[in-house]
Amino acid sequence: MKRLSNLLVAFLLASLLFTNGPGMAQANYRYRAHGDVKIGLKYGTHLRAKFTEHWNGTGHTFLVYGSTKCTRSYTRVDNRVPWLRSYGWDNAASRAYDYNRCDVKFYEHPDFRGRSKGYTNYGARGGYVGNRMNDRISSFKLS
Ligand SMILES: [Ca+2]
Ligand SMILES: [Ca+2]
User: Fold this and answer.
1) Span 68-115, pLDDT tens digits
2) Given strand 104-107, what is the order of strands in its sheet?
3) What distance in angstroms lies between residue 11's CA and the mean position of ligand 1's atoms?
4) Number of the ligand closest to the Cα of 134
5) Residue 110 gets which letter from DSSP?
6) Does the pLDDT at position 24 exceed 90?
């Protein structure tokens, strides 16, 4: 019986490792947010975007504010953060929401480099950033 329970514990530990698979496979990624963040409030109180640490909208939040709604054109960028590490949010965002006409463009690497799926309208209900970008986002633009 003892042996069976040891076996069970081993199985549970193994399945835990496998459900954390992406994190384990990329041990150099830091996929936890370090705290709640608000940026742009010195310009105004229009909420432009929200990111959450987890895919289902839970965990720490990252809020982006601005003086106005976002512009209609993507060629004029309304907010940009070249490296989320400055806010303790490197490789952490999993879900995005956007408001006030803003769309979000995420990048895999700092300085708007690496993989990106372009400007995306996540809307006020929000959306998962997708398996290819989850816990990999290092910079972003809003427009
Ligand atoms: Ca995350
Ligand atoms: Ca990254």
Assistant:
1) 999 999 999 999 999 999 999 999 999 999 999 999 999 999 999 999
2) 79-81, 139-142, 104-107
3) 25
4) 1
5) G
6) no
- CA 133/CA 82 separation, integer angstroms: 16
Rounded CA separation 108/114 (Å)? 5
**What's the gap in Å between 28 CA and the centre of ligand 1?**
14
Q: What gap in Å lies between CA 42 and CA 31, rounded to an integer?
A: 28
The pTM is what?
0.79
What is the CATH superfamily name and number for domain 32-142?
Answer: Crystallins (2.60.20.10)
The domain limits of the chain are 1-30, 32-142
How distant, in Å, are the alpha carbons of 6, 11, 72, 75 from that of 2? 6, 14, 66, 65
The answer for residues whose C-beta is within 8 angstroms of residue 1's C-beta and 6 or more apart is none
**Structure tokens that stand for 66 in this block:** 């601005």
Alpha-helix runs per DSSP H in the chain: 2-19, 21-25
CA of 28, nearest ligand number:
2
CB 80 within 8 A of CB 107: no
Which pair of tokens denotes residue 5?
Answer: 């329970």
